[in-house]
Specification:
CATH topology of the largest domain: Rossmann fold
Strand content: 15-25%
Helix content: 40-55%
CATH architecture of the largest domain: 3-Layer(aba) Sandwich
Largest sheet: 6 strands, mixed
Shape: elongated
Number of domains: 2
Oligomer: single chain
Low-confidence stretches: none
CATH class of the largest domain: Alpha Beta
């Protein structure tokens, strides 16, 4: 089996990792979970509260992750805003998984991205939205500002969740990393990578880190620290990561 006895460490936040786990286990490998980010509800400021209470005025809502959806609806509940105010709103989403999460709240998307990066998505929306469009962008505190740079005054942003270092860390898995007892680390965001580097605190040479990552944004963040991933997923989801891992080990067999 291609991944027989290989040990992978997944740094994504807590959540469903069954797709990636199935790909790795079916090929003989083992997946351990070491979340390097924690997503939490954020107390929004007064300006963001004003935007939320006027959400019915927006033609579109831009959603780039399942977390954005989860915490947008939590914010609506927290401030006593009935979600029916969204019944005439259009949704633009990144990826099929985000679309499925939106459907679980009773809404369907009107547009889904064709590219693989947030910057590409922003450029697509720039072509889709005319000058009179008003779009709301619920996201997280560490999300880059590509959307605002491209869409300008057509979009307003609310940071509905915070991305933080987890309160609890599995020190046994961290020790495996320090002891070089793993085959690949799996990174899905710059913050997850940066948090792990902070925890390692120089105990591991960055040039020795073996990893796979999602997308150019995470890849570039790693390269800035002198880490070159062994593989980069072509599609920004668990299946894409799994395929990138398989492709890498297939290539070194030859």
């Amino acid at each position: 089996m291609l991944l027989k006895d290989r040990y992978f460490i997944y740094t994504k936040s807590e959540g469903d990792s069954s797709v990636l786990n199935n790909i790795i286990s079916e090929n003989g490998g083992l997946l351990a979970h070491l979340p390097m980010i924690e997503i939490k509800f954020r107390q929004i400021d007064e300006e963001e509260q004003r935007l939320l209470h006027s959400i019915y005025q927006y033609n579109w809502i831009i959603l780039t992750s399942s977390n954005a959806i989860k915490y947008l609806f939590q914010q609506l509940d927290y401030y006593g805003i009935d979600k029916s105010v969204l019944d005439n709103t259009k949704f633009a989403v990144v990826g099929q998984q985000t679309g499925k999460t939106l459907a679980s709240y009773g809404y369907n998307y009107s547009y889904i991205n064709s590219g693989q990066t947030g910057e590409q998505f922003a450029k697509e929306l720039d072509q889709l939205f005319d000058d009179n469009i008003k779009a709301l962008y619920p996201t997280g505190n560490l999300t880059r500002y590509n959307m605002e740079k491209v869409l300008g005054d057509r979009v307003k942003r609310i940071n509905v969740y915070n991305t933080l270092m987890p309160d609890i860390i599995d020190n046994d898995i961290l020790t495996n990393i320090r002891s070089n007892k793993y085959d690949m680390l799996i990174f899905t965001s710059p913050s997850g990578f940066n948090n792990l580097i902070t925890l390692l605190n120089g105990s591991t040479s960055l040039s020795d880190i073996r990893s796979v990552c999602i997308g150019t944004t995470t890849q570039q963040a790693m390269q800035k620290q002198g880490v070159e991933p062994l593989a980069v997923a072509k599609t920004a989801n668990a299946k894409g990561i799994g395929q990138a891992i398989l492709n890498y080990y297939e290539s070194i067999k030859k």
